[in-house]
Specification:
- The protein is an alpha/beta fold.
- It has a single domain, classed as 3-Layer(aba) Sandwich (Glutaconate Coenzyme A-transferase), CATH 3.40.1080.10.
- Helices cover 19% and strands 26% of the residues.
- The chain contains 6 helices and 12 strands.
- The strands form 2 sheets. Strands 1, 2, 3, 4, 5, 9, 10, 11 and 12 form a 9-stranded mixed beta sheet that branches. A 3-stranded antiparallel beta sheet has the order 6-8-7.
- β7 and β8 form a beta hairpin.
- The protein is globular.
- The N and C termini lie far apart (55 Å).
């Protein structure tokens, strides 16, 4: 079997990128962003991208890079945040946006990985989210039908991987990354550490290697904090 491990982020994406493709990009806010792979997509020059992600990064970081270069045509997301560039491009009509409730977005991706074309949810019933979508009544309650999400490519970030692609995530980075790994034709993962085969306890594997096509060591591990909120230390805390 050929190795899943690639020498650089550029090598890991070689032959996978094309204009008009759909890309899933992991992360919640700035936690778990594929920091090393996004700049390589930018440098490739591909355009007309549809990007599925919880959000589009923050000023100067994450998917914001692809907004700045006008490589993203459409975003399927659940959170705009303080991304002023995202806001400007959407309000000007330059960027198409499909805004999803966050749980619905996660479930649409999970459904894509599980081979479930559609499902029903109460979230969004009676709002603009439900406009143009079929509804049905179950046990006296109205539900709206949502469809799966799938992609040509998923770029995700994990903490550790073994040579087979089995993955472990750390804390909040275990957000949209695991489900996205299951819902794309090709999954490329950047990791902070590659460990020898047999290192992982099977019960501790978050994403099985069958979902991972290519692995590369991260070249960027900035892990920027989008909003730092602190409180004064209590006098009683030693």
């Amino acid at each position: 079997m050929s190795s899943k491990i690639y020498s650089s982020p550029a090598a890991a994406l070689e032959g996978l990128l094309f204009d008009g493709m759909t890309v899933m990009s992991g992360g919640f806010g700035l936690s778990g962003n594929p920091e090393s792979l996004i700049p390589q997509i930018r440098d490739s020059g591909v355009t007309g991208l549809t990007v599925i992600s919880n959000n589009a990064g923050a000023d100067g970081f994450g998917l914001w890079m692809l907004l700045k270069t006008r490589q993203i045509r459409r975003m399927i997301a659940s959170y705009v945040g303080d991304n002023k560039l995202f806001e400007e491009q959407y309000l000007s009509g330059e960027l198409d946006l499909e805004l999803n409730p966050q749980g619905t977005l996660a479930e649409r991706i999970r459904a894509g990985g599980a081979g479930i074309p559609a499902f029903y949810t109460r979230t969004g019933v009676g709002t603009v989210v439900a406009e143009g979508k079929p509804t049905e009544v179950f046990e006296g309650e109205e539900y709206v039908r949502e469809t799966w999400l799938r992609a040509d490519l998923a770029i995700i970030k994990a903490w550790r991987a073994d040579p087979s692609g089995n993955l472990m995530f750390r804390r909040t980075a275990r957000n949209f990354n695991p489900v996205m790994a299951t819902a794309a034709r090709m999954t490329v993962v950047e990791v902070e550490e590659i460990v020898p085969a047999g290192t992982f306890d099977p019960d501790c594997i978050h994403t099985p290697g069958i979902y991972v096509d290519r692995i590369v060591l991260s070249t960027i591990n900035e892990k920027r904090i989008e909003k730092l909120t602190t409180r004064p230390r209590s006098e009683n805390v030693q």
